[in-house]
Amino acid sequence: MNTHNNARLTFRGRVLLVERVLDQGMHPIDAAQAMGVSARTAYKWLRRYRLDGEAALFDRSCRPRRCPHQLSAHRREQIIALRRQRHIYPQISRATSVPVSTISRVLRSVGLNRLAALEPRQPAARYEHDAPGDLLHLDIKKLGRFDRPGHRVTGDRQAGRSRHAGWDYVHVAIDDHSRVAHATIWPNEKATSARQALIAALRYYRGLGVRFSAVLTDNGACYHSRRFAKVCRRLGLKHRRTRAYRPRTNGKAERLIQTALHEWAYAHTYKNAAQRAAVLPYWLHDYNWHRPHASLDHQPPISRLGLSVNNLVGLHS
């Protein structure tokens, strides 16, 4: 029972009031004074008890028995049907003569207040290749260079900005099966940089005993270039591309970028972009060798390469 905070009588107090009057023979006014309530309140609870018994001593709902202005079920269904036809609030209001505020409340209650809810997002089709080297995900993240910490770190908006500092382009790579990652920073995202980043990544994975047969990229200009296609042919790599406007197809690389931003690029206060770049190899080492990965049963990615103890010690030293 949800009793009001300032209520003098709880359910047990009302029962005691009734017992004192009916069983002990006290006058209702005397019983009311003893309970600290008015005589009118005592007579009210006695009347309810005589009509419906002890159950009537519970609090009643404050909801009115009838509401002439309540929205009818037919009108509510009409609003929902018009919304499913992708009508916006003013259109529904004109068609039903219902205020926009009421329409908003109705649609919010059924989860249709946003048009995007009419087309639920398709469930992600997760996949994982069977062995290391089956597929290498590639992507690029553009980061602004700076020669001094910005106002988000210092809190001083009056300090000088790093104007015309340029950009750093982080070319990332991640093995589909093991999630072992690699990243290097280049001055641009042109075909030459993409080709050199790919070669650097393959050399790194070769040192771990992993050789790739295919790469997956988005539809960026550098990955559509003849130079990148040529280096893929020379290295015996099959080049796959994601569907247009479907970055989730390359989700492992996208997730790696977000993790790098949170745990490396924006995780510390760096004096300048050069210091941030110098920390990247150390963060990658921690990511590959020590950081628990949720999709790998909280084991580090290096654990999926099947390296022997001697190889692990030799590579980690």
UniProtKB/TrEMBL annotation:
Molecular function terms, GO-annotated:
nucleic acid binding
Range of residues in the leader sequence:
none
List the InterPro entries: DNA-bd_IS481-type, Homeodomain-like_sf, Integrase_cat-core, IS481-like_transpos, RNaseH-like_sf, RNaseH_sf
Q: Which domain of life is it from?
A: Bacteria
The UniProt entry, under NCBIfam families, shows: transpos_IS481
Boundaries of every Integrase catalytic domain copy: 145-308
Source species: Salinisphaera japonica YTM-1
Q: Which PROSITE patterns match?
A: INTEGRASE (PS50994)
Q: What's the name of the protein? A: Integrase
Query: Coiled coil located at which positions?
Result: none
Gene Ontology biological process? DNA integration
- Gene3D superfamilies, alphabetized: Ribonuclease H-like superfamily/Ribonuclease H (3.30.420.10)
